[in-house]
Write a structure and sequence with these properties.
Blueprint lengths: L11 E3 L2 E3 L3 E3 L17 H6 L6 E3 L3 E2 L16 H16 L4 E6 L16 E2 L8 E4 L2 E4 L4 E2 L5 H17 L5 E4 L5 H6 L14 H18 L6 E5 L15 H15 L3 E5 L3 H4 L8 H7 L3 E5 L4 H10 L4 E4 L2 H4 L3 H7 L26 E2 L5 E2 L1
Parallel strand pairs: 3-4, 3-15, 4-6, 5-6, 6-11, 7-10, 11-12, 12-13, 13-14, 14-15
Antiparallel strand pairs: 1-2, 8-9, 16-17
Helix pairs in contact: 3-5, 5-6
Length: 373
Amino acid sequence: MSIEMSLLFRDYQMGPLHLRNRIVMAPLTRARSTRAGVAPEYAVDYYEQRTGAGLIISEATNISPQAIGYAYTPGIWSAPQVESWKRVTRAVHDGGGVIVMQLWHTGRISHPDLHSGAVPVSASAIQPGGDAFTYEGPKRLVTPRAVETREIPGIVEDYGHAAENARLAGFDGVEVHSANNYLLEQFIRDSTNKRTDEYGGSVENRLRFPLAAVRAAVDAWDGGDRVGVRISPTTTSPGETPLDSDVMGTYSQYIDGLNALGVAYIHVIEGVTRETRDVPGGVDFLTLRRRFRGTYMANNRYDKELAEEALESGRADLVSFGRPFITNPDLVERLRSGAPLVDAPKETYYGADEKGHSDWPEFEEEENGAQKR
């Protein structure tokens, strides 16, 4: 497929947002913020270097102190946090880019050490598997407490406040993180939601809180055309979380609720894309794609070839790339030219400073045709 004919590099209009291509930078947790959740100065360079993407989705950002599940992750509930993000959005916009903020509450994927000894909250008191990443290193995830019914409206307000702050910080929109077995998905799945109040039991009840959180973001942005939602119907980590007993039934109803709210896009972590295509994990993602009225953004192990096939076949409108953006700030141009990609060493994923974060060089071609980094 020629570059000129490839949809991957063509622009795309998503409501009021004009994207220069169909390549999205997926949210990438890098764990380099302060303990107060303030994004570091060098985050400006990091995001500015990646403005070639049609859309940038920020690293997952905590909506409140209670939302924190990983050490050194950023927040969006305080004035200093808002100011730190203003520097980022200004740089992205100066580079001609578009950026939205992912709003995050980790729920039970957390640890008391991150909450001054308080036990993390979840839909129900079910202990996940695996470790939490605290300031002292990895520690076993604990049994959470079931959040009380009277507390849930306050968490919904936290989502609304975070969405408002993202708007103040200059973002072009927000993405509500209801994937990867974090708090909202802990309510969605019947494997982690054993409640007997109005937030548990039926699919309608289990979706009540997640849809309220999305509605709060929609209200903060005066409509859904700048709000996206991330979902992961077949993801089992972190936390070794079982799937819902009726994945298609549950997520079809969730998509109907998102349609009613008029959200701009759904960002779908599909099954093992490379191997199973339309029916990964026994779930028909093509049916979910057709059910949703807005933009469908596909994610999970996509390379250029698979992305182009998904766009040309109509299985997706946009494709998000994650890890390749860590070490290839000019990923779009590398994909366009066929230049080799640099693999990210795992030790650079999380923590530390600008080394391995915002110091990856762009690909260059010398006059004699030799290639260098």
